[in-house]
Specification:
This protein has eight helices and 27 strands. The chain is of the alpha/beta class. Bound molecules: flavin-adenine dinucleotide (FAD).
Length: 405
């Protein structure tokens, strides 16, 4: 256990990654600690932040990519240092990280490290997949405006939506994408001449949510005549717009939309932090404190972690969990730096989260999750409504205001 020294020395907190988890942690820490107590530095290779769910609104045409990216250097106005650089090395025994720029200042020392580097997309791991005018990685925000154009110009044929592997960010998102595409095609007058099909590697649509909720999701797809194909793990993309699955099935497509495989960012794969010693997988953390196993002043939150719940089921990769974990990590660091022993409540992540599942026509359902429930994870799906859709819009608006206004 780290014993926090009083405010004689200004502590250095480094936050790696200015995404959902990193921004949430930086803002909470800045609110809880004075400049004299702590310097907070956030490092990201990107200059901008955009929430993942905005991809859906760009696809629908209600938002533009260029109007949705917020500059990260506004953090400086809040007393949070922002460094736009790539992190290339973690030297955890010496509490130092290295960035790509070859200057004398490319090594940073920390008292506390929060790793919030998210998940990297790896479309190149799909055999035969090449981005072109018929093949799209729908999780790449830069490609989504072109995908929308392509959907609008397609007159007939088959759109295949394919989840290449698990885990992937936001488990309901591919279903939201297929429902929104169905809406776009209906408004475009082409729905009746285009088949919309979704192929997934697992036996049910949302393994973390269990069989009942998974069936509810399939019913939503059925209502919009979207064909659902479980147990279809993509083997390769062949010439002549053909997909081959590991179960031997082959299908033709006119437009292929993939959710690509995800993996930990390279700097993490090169570190000693992975669950799997074969340099596969994600960072293992204490499920309540989010501390890494070996280094008590090093925390990891969000998509870069793996927290096992039950068998193969893990905490889903979703911003709401990154945010919940950021709160717990910030609380622990604030208590340690301020030497606050009066706070009897021990900060513990509770595994709770929620999300709004968009189903088209400005309507959304609500998924509520209690993953650490002692009797086993419980997940509830509330019926879609227009009000829930408005709450989804507010979900993004409120966080952007809080983190980057
Ligand atoms: C289409 C879609 C819809 C979604 N909908 C929802 C939703 O409704 N609700 C929800 O909760 N979640 C949703 N998500 C998931 C959510 O976006 C992610 O789970 C969330 O962003 C994870 O937060 P994070 O902080 O772990 O990582 P991220 O937000 O991905 O941030 C990681 C940051 O690290 C940076 N980085 C990585 N490697 C390096 C490096 N070597 N050097 C410097 N910087 C680096 C990246 O540039 C990035 O900014 C959705 C995602 C998608 C794609």
């Amino acid at each position: 256990m780290i014993t926090a020294s009083p405010t004689t020395k200004r502590k250095q907190v480094l936050i790696l990654g200015a995404g959902f988890g990193g921004l949430s942690a930086a803002n909470l820490l800045r609110k809880g600690l004075t400049q004299e107590e702590c310097q907070i530095t956030v490092i990201d290779k990107s200059k901008y932040f955009m929430m993942g769910l905005v991809n859906l609104w760009i696809l629908k045409g209600t938002r533009r990519l260029d109007a949705s990216q917020t500059a990260l250097d506004v953090l400086e106005n809040k007393g949070i240092s922002f460094l736009n650089n790539e992190i290339t090395r973690l030297d955890l025994p010496n509490s130092t990280i290295t960035t790509a720029t070859k200057t004398r200042n490319n090594k940073l020392v920390y008292d506390y490290l929060i790793i919030a580097l998210g998940a990297e997309l790896a479309p190149e791991q799909i055999n035969g997949f090449k981005e072109n005018e018929s093949c799209f990685n729908v999780y790449d925000a830069q490609r989504v405006p072109y995908l929308r154009e392509k959907i609008l110009t397609l007159k007939r044929g088959r759109i295949a939506i394919c989840i290449a592997d698990i885990p992937y960010k936001c488990p309901p998102a591919p279903y939201e994408i297929s429902l929104l595409i169905s809406d776009i095609l209906t408004k475009n007058g082409t729905r009746d001449s285009i088949d919309l099909e979704i192929y997934i590697p697992t036996p049910i649509s949302l393994p973390v949510a269990g069989a009942n909720i998974s069936q509810d999701v399939v019913s939503l797809l059925d209502d919009k005549h979207i064909k659902f194909h479980p147990q279809h793990k993509l083997k390769r993309v062949l010439e002549n717009k053909t997909l081959e699955f590991e179960n031997g099935n082959k299908i033709n497509y006119d437009l292929l939309i993939v959710v690509p495989p995800h993996r930990a960012p390279e700097v993490i794969r090169d570190s000693e932090l992975l669950v799997d010693s074969n340099k596969q997988g994600w960072i293992s953390v204490d499920r309540f404190t989010l501390r890494t196993i070996k280094y008590k002043n090093v925390f990891a939150i969000g998509d870069v972690t793996e927290i096992r719940l039950d068998g193969a089921i893990t905490v889903p990769k979703a911003g709401i969990f990154a945010e919940g974990e950021a709160k717990i990590v910030s609380e622990q660091i604030i208590n340690e730096i301020t030497n606050n022993t009066n706070n009897n409540r021990i900060a513990k992540f509770d595994g709770k989260g929620f999300c709004f599942m968009e189903i088209g026509d400005k309507t959304a359902g609500y998924i509520d999750a209690d993953l650490y429930n002692e009797a086993g994870p419980t997940i509830r799906l509330d019926s879609p409504s227009k009000k829930l859709y408005q709450m989804k819009l507010e979900f993004e608006r409120s966080r952007m205001k809080e983190w980057l206004s």
